[in-house]
Specification:
single chain, 293 residues, mainly alpha
Length: 293
């Protein structure tokens, strides 16, 4: 009985051993094939592959491919360009935090690079979009009504481009974006002032309006700030300053609705109870879903 059992188990053991060897060989072959896909490829070939992925809109694939190039070839002109392209791919993929980190690393490593103006410009774009992509698309959040720390950093980035590199191809667009951001900052101050006005805190409302006029002169909301001053001074009983505000509006923006008693218009209270409705800006009277486009 013992001898027969040994004879029967020998083929079973042999078959099991063969299966183990086959699976091990297959697994090693597949792993090596995947691992060695770009291993040792020339830097030019890796860069061309990465760039082709980016041109096709495969931002994540391009980012990973550029990172593979950088890991294999940590120095050289192709590596420098790959770092730039990788940051751009991250920005296009909506990975704004990653893009800012990559750009900061590039600026520290190559502070005098010939494309440094572009990197500051790209950092401005990424900073301007940080913490906003999801919120603006899903909740229709007006950028003036959120935390402004990253937009202010974007403004600083664009200012570097305009100030240090005024002759670069990005300077003109950087200046235009600074104007847009200044209007966002000004609207933020105006909305705060109108918040105080709605609650009868007229001194605080006037303070916000004055701060807007002093800090963001010639913004798109400067005459709204004047109107808020007129409204605040009227309620504070300061007829002289209220009349001054009215005269400024009559001379510079005679069609302003405050002169006809139709400003500001606060949103209908029931609307504020709907979490899926884009919050209406008192400053503009527009839905933030429209303003965010």
């Amino acid at each position: 009985m013992i001898r027969r059992s040994s004879l029967l188990s020998a083929p079973v053991r042999l078959t099991a051993l063969l299966l183990v060897l086959v699976f091990a060989a297959t697994g090693c072959h597949r792993g090596d094939k995947k691992k060695d896909a770009d291993e040792g490829a020339p830097v030019e070939q890796l860069f061309e592959k990465s760039h082709t992925l980016m041109e096709g809109g495969n931002w994540s694939g391009a980012e990973n491919s550029f990172k593979r190039l950088i890991a294999q070839y940590p120095y050289g002109p192709y590596t420098e360009q790959a770092m730039i392209e990788s940051a751009y791919a991250q920005y296009k993929a909506g990975k704004n935090d990653d893009a800012v980190s990559s750009i900061d690393r590039f600026i520290r490593t190559y502070p005098t690079h010939r494309n440094i103006a572009y990197m500051y410009y790209l950092r401005g774009l990424a900073n301007g979009n940080r913490d906003t992509v999801f919120l603006r698309r899903v909740w229709s959040l007006d950028p003036s009504r959120r935390d402004l720390s990253t937009p202010r950093q974007a403004y600083a980035d664009f200012n570097i481009v305009a100030d240090r590199y005024p002759n670069s191809r990005y300077a003109a667009d950087a200046r235009q974006r600074m104007v847009i951001l200044r209007d966002i900052f000004a609207q933020h101050e105006l909305d705060d002032g109108l918040y105080y006005a709605r609650r009868g805190a007229w001194v605080s409302a006037a303070g916000r309006a004055n701060y807007l006029l002093e800090t963001y002169p010639q913004s798109a909301f400067q005459y709204d700030a004047v109107a808020l001053l007129g409204e605040a001074y009227t309620h504070l009983g300061n007829k002289t300053l209220a009349d001054d505000a009215r005269r400024v509006l009559e001379l510079n923006q005679p069609e302003h609705p405050w002169l006809a008693g139709n400003w500001p218009k606060y949103p209908w209270m029931i609307r504020k109870l709907n979490p899926f409705a884009g919050e209406k800006s008192v400053a503009t009277g527009q839905s933030n879903a429209t303003m965010g486009k």
